């Protein structure tokens, strides 16, 4: 009955998320289902101070709030100053805007540069869409193809694979495994190459097929797309990318020296530099800081709610059967860890949420088996993202809201571009992890 209750709760999370309910509401509802069906003490399991839904929620916030806060403030500076726009325009000037495929490559590169520089994928969407739309219209490219370069840039290798990336998916394992942001660089680099190659191939394939089918730029007349204005005065490309370069250098040097909380040091330095060099490009620093601070609240609550649900699951008696099944999967332990991380990422529709649950539930068990922590870090992070291109994922819903696209006319591209590169990269990562770690 307990295991069945967990399965029902997971179904409720997926179903309600696809219906548009917030995970902040869904997670406690699903947790209550788990608590009741597993015969757990109700209030101690829900709001207790020892091990409960609430301690799972607050524990995640305590560990990662500073990362979300500084990252969100940095994103505001990069966006409000026009720095992100300047970076995007520089990339477009290099790739050109006369042919369809180079434009798609440029959009992909813009997303990758910004997310590797610590900018939230949601902010990147606000930068890329208004730049891409007139180009798609000018070249008569089918508008639903926009999701391919966007998600290839923000939802694959810069999220989980590239060593040193400041994404929350790369930070989460460090807290459980004692690893650095540059963990398992060989695995990360090979996975990145595989993901980019697969993504570029599919992007060209989808574009050629669209042209062959004579698909053109056409917006749904009923689409409620959001209009975003571009800034006229923006900083130079060098100034625009300087905070991002500083962040990356600090992370790599600090990780090599095994400095604790290096991502916070890097983000803090990037914010200070941004405040100085973008001073004349931002009308109100108070507004930028305040918007950044406020903007960090909902993302961390969304993720922490998913993790809190995971904590309740791990405490439930019915979870023992699931845990035994996962730990008992034959073969290298990295394979079973991969299955657990991928499944939990799919269930929550969030790579960071699924990864947090997987680390909470299994990290210590795998470390006790003697599994290399660096390999665990990189492979579990990659696995958590494989099946997150699902209908209820927050990034998917946000992109559709910004572009006026729908699940009907664009979701197939989202699913393929999020799944294919990540899955192939995961297979490559597993092979390297099994034979070399």
Describe the structure.
The structure is a single chain. By secondary structure, this protein is an all-alpha fold. It has one domain. It is 75% helix and 0% strand. It has helices at 2-18, 23-37, 42-47, 53-80, 83-95, 100-116, 121-139, 147-154, 157-160, 168-177, 185-212, 237-256, 262-277, 285-295, 297-315, 319-327, 333-348, 351-368, 373-385, 394-403, 407-436. α2 packs parallel to α15 (297-315), α4 runs antiparallel to α14 and α12 (237-256) packs antiparallel against α13 (262-277). The radius of gyration is 21 Å and the shape is globular. The two termini are 39 Å apart. Residues 222-226 have low confidence and may be disordered.
Précis, in short:
The chain has 437 residues and is mainly alpha-helical. 75% of the residues lie in helices and 0% in strands. The longest helix is centred in the C-terminal third of the chain and has 30 residues, at 407-436.
Sequence-ordered SSE layout with sheet pairings:
Layout: H1 2-18, H2 23-37, H3 42-47, H4 53-80, H5 83-95, H6 100-116, H7 121-139, H8 147-154, H9 157-160, H10 168-177, H11 185-212, H12 237-256, H13 262-277, H14 285-295, H15 297-315, H16 319-327, H17 333-348, H18 351-368, H19 373-385, H20 394-403, H21 407-436
Helix pairs in contact: 1-2, 2-15, 4-10, 4-13, 4-14, 4-15, 5-6, 5-7, 5-12, 6-7, 6-8, 6-11, 7-20, 8-21, 10-18, 10-19, 11-21, 12-13, 15-18, 17-18, 17-19, 18-19, 19-21
């Amino acid at each position: 009955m307990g295991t069945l209750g967990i399965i029902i709760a997971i179904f409720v999370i997926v179903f309600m998320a696809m219906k548009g309910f917030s995970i902040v509401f869904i997670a406690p509802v699903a947790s209550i289902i788990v608590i009741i069906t597993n015969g757990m003490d109700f209030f101690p399991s829900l709001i207790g101070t020892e091990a409960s839904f609430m301690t799972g929620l607050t524990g995640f916030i305590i560990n990662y709030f500073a990362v979300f806060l500084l990252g969100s403030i940095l994103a505001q500076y990069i966006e409000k100053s026009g720095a992100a726009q300047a970076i995007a325009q520089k990339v477009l000037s290099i790739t050109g805007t006369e042919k369809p495929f180079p434009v798609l490559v440029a959009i992909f590169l813009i997303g990758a540069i910004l997310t590797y520089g610590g900018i939230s994928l949601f902010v990147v969407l606000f930068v890329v869409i208004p730049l891409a739309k007139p180009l798609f219209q000018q070249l008569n490219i089918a508008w639903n193809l926009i999701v391919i370069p966007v998600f290839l840039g923000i939802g694959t290798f810069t999220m989980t694979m590239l060593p040193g990336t400041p994404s929350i998916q790369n930070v989460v394992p460090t807290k459980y495994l004692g690893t650095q942001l540059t963990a398992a660089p060989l695995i990360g680099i090979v996975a990145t190459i595989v993901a980019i190659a697969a993504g570029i191939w599919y992007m060209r394939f989808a574009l050629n097929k669209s042209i062959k089918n004579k698909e053109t730029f056409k917006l749904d007349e009923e689409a409620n797309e959001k209009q975003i204005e571009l800034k006229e005065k923006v900083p130079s490309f060098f100034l625009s990318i300087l905070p991002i370069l500083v962040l990356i250098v600090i992370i790599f040097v600090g990780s090599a020296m095994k400095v604790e909380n290096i991502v916070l040091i890097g983000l803090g330095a990037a914010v200070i530099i941004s405040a100085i060099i973008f001073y004349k490009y931002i009308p109100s620093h108070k507004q930028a800081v305040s918007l950044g601070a406020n903007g960090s609240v909902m993302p961390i609550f969304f993720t922490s709610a998913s993790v809190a649900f995971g904590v309740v699951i791990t405490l439930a008696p019915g979870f023992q059967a699931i845990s035994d099944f996962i730990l008992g999967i034959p073969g290298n332990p990295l394979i079973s860890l991969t299955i657990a991380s991928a499944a939990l990422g799919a269930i929550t529709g969030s790579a960071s949420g699924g990864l947090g649950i997987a680390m909470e539930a299994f990290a210590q068990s795998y470390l006790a088996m003697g599994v290399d922590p660096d390999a665990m870090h990189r492979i579990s992070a990659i696995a958590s993202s494989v099946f997150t291109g699902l209908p209820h994922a927050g990034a998917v819903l946000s992109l559709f809201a910004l572009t006026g696209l729908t699940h009907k006319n664009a979701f197939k591209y989202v699913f393929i571009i999020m799944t294919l590169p990540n899955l192939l990269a995961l297979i490559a990562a597993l092979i390297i992890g099994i034979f070399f770690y």
